[in-house]
Each structure stands twice: as C-alpha cells, then as structure tokens.
Design goal:
This protein has 281 residues and is an alpha+beta fold. It contains six helices and 14 strands. It folds into three domains: 54 residues, no CATH class; 65 residues, no CATH class; 144 residues, no CATH class. Helices cover 36% and strands 20% of the residues.
Length: 281
C-alpha cells in the first residue's frame, strides 16, 4: 500500500479540497485521502507517515491539539519578549564592573566585552546560586561559606588570598599566578541557566594591581548578589498565601474558544478575532 502517488482521478483532499497528485501528494488514511500540507498542518511529519493508520477524525483531533500547543508556544514567546523589553528599560542604580543592579525593580544586567554577545538581564528572584571560580576551582559559593569567605572580608588581603580562601575548614593551595577568574551565576527559569562574568581572562600575577582590582571587584559583585538574593527571598516570604483564584491564561482561553468553534457554538470568524485579541496581534 503506497503513501504517496499520482491520483489518476485527481481526487480532492478530504480536508482542504485541493486536487491530489504529484504536486500536492496523496496520503492515504483509513477512511480517506489527504494532501501533504494538511498532514503537516495537523502536526505530523514524514517520520510519522503510515498508510491507513489514522482516520480523518483522528487527524482533526491531532490538528486541534497541535494548534493549541502552537498558540501556547507563541504566547510564551510573546511574554518572554515583553519581559525582556521591560528589563532593558530599567535604569541601573549601581554598577560594579560588568554587573549592574537596580534594587527598586530587582533587576540585574550583565555586560560582556565581546560586542557580539548580547547583554543578559534577570530578576533578583531568579538567582539560584553563584560562586567565584579561579583557574577552574570554586573559591566561594553562595551556599556554605559565602558569608565568611566573602561578606566577612577575608577574600582580600595579601597577594593570592583568593586562591587561598578558607572554605569549610579546608585551605586551598595558594598560587602566584592566576589565568582565569570568573563568577558563575546559576538562574532559575532562564535561558541560559548559567551566566559567567569574566574578571581575569589571561595570565596575571597575584601580587599585581590587576589581580587585586579583580579580586576586589569579585567581592563586591558577590556581596551585591547575596544582598539581591536575600531581598528576593524576603519579598517572597512576605507575600500572602493566595487562594486558588487564578485568572485563566490566554492559552487556556484560546483552547476554550477552540472547543466552542469545534462544537459549532461560534463561527470561524469569531474564533479568529478572539485569537488575535488574545495573542495581541
């Protein structure tokens, strides 16, 4: 049994009515024949072709589910774009090297020296964890040691003290040269889920002004990140418990109107109008 072929009678597609044949394809279902465009629009691909496996009713159901999923993805993309625009409009209140903070709005901006790498923005509440990495080794983390190693001020001092910071009672080996110093910020609900802030990217002597400046900057950034994370945690804890009175999302509303359309309660025109309204098109 073939999936594609030239229809001698040029039968119309059971979905859209286009004549089947070489150009439009001819996919044979259990109870009819459709064109390849209708097959694709229902969310299927070449890898899912199977002669006689589906009925027209199953195809219509799958298409409805696909449209709802596509609408939900479009809404998420639109919401992400709007959120990014809001974050970009926030003016920094405090800038520490490549990292800027706005305590009022709870927003962080990270800039990069590479002009082809876009600035990254995130909210205080997205901060999951952060740590200082020197030559690939973790020197200070936001969990278990940050308070004593960074906020307490022992991060700085004699040359190379960052490499010899005391964490959990264990002292790392002090080095005379540093080739890499960066801060890793791990985020929740973000893409990417980790952002790296480079402070030293080439071989630098630990008794040099460059190293000491980077170490000072690292301490200030880590301290500011800790304050930001604590502020977000305090605000979350202070929020009242909300009873389940959530307003339906635009995706939920779209699915509801799609069901009304399928049931014949509203016209295609009414559905299209509501869809544009919900998507903000």
């Amino acid at each position: 049994m073939g999936l594609f072929g030239v229809s001698k009678e040029k039968k119309p597609c059971a979905c859209c009515g286009k004549p089947l044949g070489m150009l439009n394809g001819d996919i044979i279902l259990a109870d009819g024949e459709i064109c390849f465009d209708c097959w694709k629009n229902a969310g299927f691909g070449i890898s899912t072709l199977g002669a006689g496996k589906y009925t027209l009713a199953q195809l219509a159901e799958h298409r409805k589910e696909t449209e709802a999923k596509q609408a939900e993805e479009a809404l998420k993309k639109k919401e992400a774009e709007e959120e990014l625009a809001r974050l970009k409009s926030v003016v920094p209140e405090k800038t520490i090297g490549p990292v800027a903070f706005n305590d009022t709005e709870g927003v962080v901006k990270v800039s990069f020296s590479n002009m082809f790498e876009p600035d990254q923005y995130f909210r205080y509440r997205q901060i999951l964890d952060f740590e200082l990495l020197q030559d690939g080794e973790s020197i200070a983390k936001s969990k278990g040691g940050l308070g004593s190693a960074v906020v307490g001020g022992v991060l700085l001092g004699p040359a190379g003290l960052v490499a010899g910071a005391v964490l959990g009672g264990k002292k790392t080996k002090t080095k005379n040269v540093c080739t890499s110093m960066k801060i890793k910020i791990t985020l929740r609900d973000n893409n990417p889920d980790a952002i790296y802030v480079d402070l030293i990217t080439k071989e630098t002597k630990c008794d040099s002004w460059t190293y000491k400046s980077a170490a000072k900057q690292a301490q200030n950034i880590l301290s500011a990140l800790q304050v930001a994370a604590d502020k977000a945690a305090a605000e979350t804890a202070a929020q009242p418990v909300v009873v389940n009175t959530a307003v339906p999302s635009a995706a939920d509303e779209l699915i509801k109107y799609k069901q009304l359309l399928d049931a014949g309660a509203i016209t295609q025109e009414e559905f299209d109008t509501k869809k544009k309204q919900l998507l903000g098109l």
